[in-house]
Amino acid sequence: MRILLAEDERDLNRIITQKLTSDGYSVDSCFDGEEAIDFLDATDYDAVILDIMMPRVDGFGVLRHMREKKKTAPVLFLTARDTVADRVRGLDAGADDYLVKPFSFEELAARLRAMTRKKFGMKDNVLCVGDLVLDTAAHTVQRGGVEIRLSTREFQILEYLMRNQGIVLSREKLENHIWNFAYEGGTNVIDVYISYLRKKIDGGHSEKLIQTVRGRGYVIRQTST
After folding, report:
1. Residue 90, SS3?
2. pLDDT category, 199, cuts 50, 70, 90?
3. Measuring CA to CA, which of 73, 135, 194, 205 is 20 to 30 A from 109?
4. Which domains are delineated in the chain?
């Protein structure tokens, strides 16, 4: 999934970006609230991490802009201010969660998973389509009980397809949720990765879960019940 991180402490920004990237997220990072607003106006994110005390526009201002623009991505506030009043203000402003610095990256990752589960209506970290099972926390994929090894990009695309089971996703939408603004790739990159996934997910199975909808994009769904 695609995450926006706005954190003005450059070392912390870099470390969080590296951690999230290693966990399979696509991350756009910036260092002040104005930059964050520019990013938010340019694309939709699956989750947003905002430092509260940022230059130019603070986290509350960024969140207010998001909600005025009808941006519904869940928001996690990062802050060194740990009073009850500060936490209440953050949550009342429309944030979905609040994490006080210093924090463990394991807790940050768990809170992100919890927020995105809620966004996609999931009860746990496991996605299922027929006998295909993907665990977003363990980063494992199985079909018919047999483990399937995927690259990071393959896993990201499959996860996004499964989170939107039954919904046709265009190539543009898939690209926008898998790659950040630093990406410079070919126009057929999604087609290439879908081909890889089909071989690994559907190869050897009579029921083909990954389907092409001509002129519209790709969808994952069961063809039989």
Report:
1. helix
2. very high
3. 194
4. 2-119 (3.40.50.2300), 126-220 (1.10.10.10)
